[in-house]
Amino acid sequence: MNMMDMFGKMKEVQSRMKDAQENLSTVIETGESGAGLVKVTVNGLKNVLKIEIDPDLIKSSATPAADREMLQDLIVAATNKAMGNVEIKAREQLRQATEGLLPNIPGLNLDGLM
């Protein structure tokens, strides 16, 4: 592969990566905690789109401190799961966008482009 071909490939990689990054908003994942009592939905841009809390978890506005702490922990756990799941999907989308364009170069890591 000559240098001009390599530059052409890099421009194509940049273009495909840009398209893939723009489409990350369509990559959606939901994380659950507390056996589904709390669900958090995020997109590939790592924006929280929705938080769902089972109504039985919030029975009154005067929630004892222990219940409030448990709810906070469940929200954090569900958010972390959703973020981990969407990260995997987003990486896969970016990998597919550049598949076949670059040779397998040891140490070449495109993760920073996400």
Structure write-up:
- It comes from Spirosoma pollinicola.
- Pfam families: YbaB_DNA_bd.
- Homodimer.
- Belongs to the YbaB/EbfC family.
- With 114 residues, this protein is α+β, with helices and mostly antiparallel strands.
- It has a domain at 22-100: Nucleoid-associated protein YbaB-like domain (Ybab, Chain: A, 2-Layer Sandwich), CATH 3.30.1310.
- It contains 2 helices and 3 strands.
- A 3-stranded antiparallel β-sheet has the order 1-2-3.
- The longest helix has 34 residues, at 65-98.
- The relative contact order is 0.19.
- The appropriate CATH architecture of one domain is 2-Layer Sandwich
The neighbouring-strand order within the major sheet is 1-2-3
Give the tally of β-strands: 3
CATH superfamily of one domain: Nucleoid-associated protein YbaB-like domain
Q: Work out the helix count.
A: 2
- Characterize the overall form: rod-shaped
Order of helices and strands: HEEEH
Beta-strand level of the residues, as a percent range? Answer: 15-25%
Write down the overall mean pLDDT.
83
Q: Can you identify the CATH class of one domain?
A: Alpha Beta
N-C termini distance: 27 Å
Main features:
114 residues, alpha+beta, Ybab, Chain: A, 3-stranded antiparallel beta sheet, 3 strands, rod-shaped
